[in-house]
Amino acid sequence: MPRCALDRVAEGIRDVLEIRIDQTAALVDMNSLLSSRAGWVINGCYLVTLAAPVASLFSIRLVRRKEYAAHRRLQTILACVGVVAVLALETRIRLAGGSGALLRGSPHAGSEMFRVIAAVHIAVAVCTYAAWVWLLFASRRAFGKTLPGPFSRLHKRVGWGVISGLAFTAGSASVVYYLAFVA
Q1: CB-based contact 151:138 (threshold 8 Å)
Q2: Residue 13 region, left (φ>0) first, then alpha (ψ -120 to 50), else beta?
Q3: What ranges do the domains of the chain cover?
Q4: CA R_g for the chain
């Protein structure tokens, strides 16, 4: 008897929620694309991390063209996608039994070098995302008043700090990703 579409959807959702390492919910097999041991959630989060500083720099071009509403929309979308990606990554780590369970295939698992690199990566990423979310909410309150306004100078400084943090996070994520899932 042919299965109905609803059964196929329910089965797909079950597979995603179980997050089986040997299956992927993506149309493109990102494991093959990135040649790693990481699953599709980790690969997706990694790609978002790499794209965030580039997209943020593009967003600066919108400001220079005085397209403030487009800059606001893009930054809101980027921050939301970034937060969702990090939450998905954290969920994946917890469901796997912790970061140690994900690193089993890595020769660097448990090494002091890896711990230090991962700790610095996480610390900078958390500070960057906290500053980004704060800036997003503070800017939303100030938006609509005169532009540029008294908040613009602080916005610019914190914004460049966030972009620098995103760039560092992308670089350090690349090192962590390589040590954990490629090496």
Answers
A1: yes
A2: alpha
A3: 5-182
A4: 19
Q: For helices 68-95 and 112-142, what crossing angle results, to 10°? A: 140
Residues 6 or more apart from 170 whose CB is under 8 A from it? 49, 50, 52, 53
DSSP 4: P
CA distances from 96 to 105, 112, 129 (A): 13, 22, 24
Measured at the CA of 173, the angle between CA 171 and CA 178, to 5 degrees, comes to 100
- Per the document, the length of the chain is 183
**Contact (CB, 8 A) for 100 and 155:** no
For residue range 93-147, list pLDDT tens digits in order: 888 888 777 778 788 888 899 899 999 999 999 999 999 999 999 888 877 666 6
